[in-house]
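Protein: histidine kinase
Species: Marinobacterium aestuariivivens
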Amino acid sequence: MLLSTVTALLISGAVIIYYDLSDFRQRTLQDLRTQADLLGQASVAALQFDDADTATAQLSLLRLRPQILAATLYGVDGKAFARYSAGGVTDLPLPTRVDDTAYRIDGDRLLLSRPILFDGERLGFIYLLANYPYRERLLRDVGIVVGVALFALAISMLISLWIQSRITRPVLRVSELARRVVEQRDYGLRADTGGDDEIGYLVQAFNDMLAEIGRRTAELESSNRRLGEEIHERRQASEEIRRLNAELEQRVQLRTAELENANKELEAFSYSVSHDLRAPLRSIDGFSQALLEDCLDSLDATGQDYLNRVRAAAQRMGVLIDDLLNLSRVSRAQLTLEPLDLSLLAREILAQLSEQEPERDVTVDIENGLLCRGDPRLIRVALENLLGNAWKYSARRERARIAFYLRDGEQGQAFCIEDNGAGFDMAYADRLFGAFQRLHDARDYPGTGVGLATVQRIIRRHGGDVWAEAEVDQGARFYFRLPAPTPDGDAS
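Structure follows.
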């Protein structure tokens, strides 16, 4: 409080002294300007008629203003015309510049010059030297401020002593009690409530707080005991869980080993199927071709037709075996995810199809910048099947069209491969992605019915989904979703 009081008094005293000294200077200057203007106007006639005695008489009136020590009246030529001296000053130096602000403070004296004008014509100027008791004024202001400050400090000291007795000491007693409670953890201690003022209310609130803390401490200790028992039980349960997890891990390792053995057996079986089935099929196809080439003259048209059918069935069986093996590999292949440009990949696949059937007139419309994140080998297999179907089922159109673009739908964005081919009946759409399921006659559109099943497995392994929309003879649209590439292009 004392520090705040001293600071406030110093700031306010400094402001008051600065304001008083500034006001004193302005009032002194204004008074001297007024006096100089009055003398100047009174001396106009004397200057015009070169009457120095009259001008001296006018300046002698300054004896009524004892603060003015001397004055000099100058003509337009800059020569002294009349003088007045009341303080032992015999001469005044001619100022170098005379205007409304031509004044100079020299210690405890103030020098002021003012022009003498008549009808806008300058007749001369007057120069005044006045007493300027700046130091006396400053000492007086400082004395007043110091006196007021001392008186205010005395009053502040008395108030501080009263506050210390009524507020500070009771608060310190409460603080000491709080320290004892913390050290002894005895919440039964209480402070003397004292009076019924604000400090008394504070002490009573502190006592109530101690009582509440004591009650909650007892509840907390009881809760801690129960919590300790629960922790012990949970520790036992955790140990049981670790034991069960160890058993489960052993079972998982056992099942993993069994699964790896099963996969190895499946690989061996796939190789066996591929080898054991292909060998007789090659024999059937080869001997059938040999019969057609060597015994063509001995066979009638019916026999030749039978042999051609045998060869076609054997070749179709070989394609079916390849598709089954590819479908099996898709389910077991390890995924390697990386950013892919589907637009570029689709153009490569359609270019290969166009090279195989250069006579076909197919309009291809592929949107640029179709990007995803996936396994390059598997995604290429999926696109080859989807684009191959679009190419195959639009073969009977004079002006076939295949489009690949990104579509915004109710379920979000999805890639779409569209054609204007044979289409299909949506009533059988649930059979579309099943293995060996065909919605068209194999004589019109050859195939094994495994391609779309392969596509579905590839898309689902990437966390996406695939579906189709079509109308009979109006084309088909196959939609699928794949993970989008990360912003930094990282495939992980």
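Remarks: The first strand starts at residue 68 and ends at 75.
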